Amino acid sequence: MSEVAWDAPLLDGTVMVLAGAGPGLGAQIARDATAAGARVVLAARRKDYLEELAADLRQSGADVRCQPCDVTVDADCRSLIAVAEEEFGQVDSVVCNAFAQGRAYGQTLEEADIDGWREAFDVNLFGSLRVVKAAIPALKRRDHGSVIFVGSQITRRVFAGRGPYASSKAALLTAAQILARELGPYGIRVNTVVPGRMWGPPLRRYIERLAVQRDTSFEQELNRMVGDVSLPQLSTDEESARVVVFLASALAAGMTGQSVDVNAGETFH
Known about the structure:
Elements: E1 15-19, H1 25-35, E2 39-44, H2 47-58, E3 64-68, H3 74-88, E4 93-96, H4 114-124, H5 126-142, E5 145-150, H6 163-183, E6 188-195, E7 198-199, H7 201-214, H8 218-225, E8 235-236, H9 237-248, E9 259-262
Parallel strand pairs: 1-2, 1-4, 2-3, 4-5, 5-6, 6-9, 7-8
């Protein structure tokens, strides 16, 4: 078990592999992890985007590398971990943030093509498992480590037409608990962060559409959305990213198989 150096940044001396470093939560995790002292390998499908994000992070002194990766491809996942070990010599934490809603999103099972459901599972569940499977040997070599999955509040508050996304994220929660049992003897912890509705451009556009559909105002729809939230506000990607950093750190050394909800108290679990 690694010790906490209280006079050093929380992730000082560690290496994080971030699969799914896209705009929003992924980029925020990268910012917070590097600010906490981690060296980070950024992974996403688009090389040009990764290079832009890396350039931005390096302006703040971050030590990062880029590796294009499709998490549905085993070879890509193996290459991702290989780059981390070749460039930084180790892997201490793996964050699985890649996600897909699938083309069946918004359709009931009766309406949907089953292959549309499979698309969501291929990325959200099996993609995450591919990354972790590729990383297990590297994590074992460190005799400790942290795997962090990113779940979704849709597993707590389900809606019709959200079947592929919600079911794949629910399966990921169970997979995390199984892996916590399997990898615990090697000192490897596995936990899940479950973000609520996060404030940002996608949610803003959604609220704007609701206001048009209901002939109301943006402010009215926003107030309605947070009306039953314990902290009357929307959560942010920064708040979820900080929990990822915590779970990757030695401060969470006693936590595995857990899910941590970050939703301002919209739902309790």
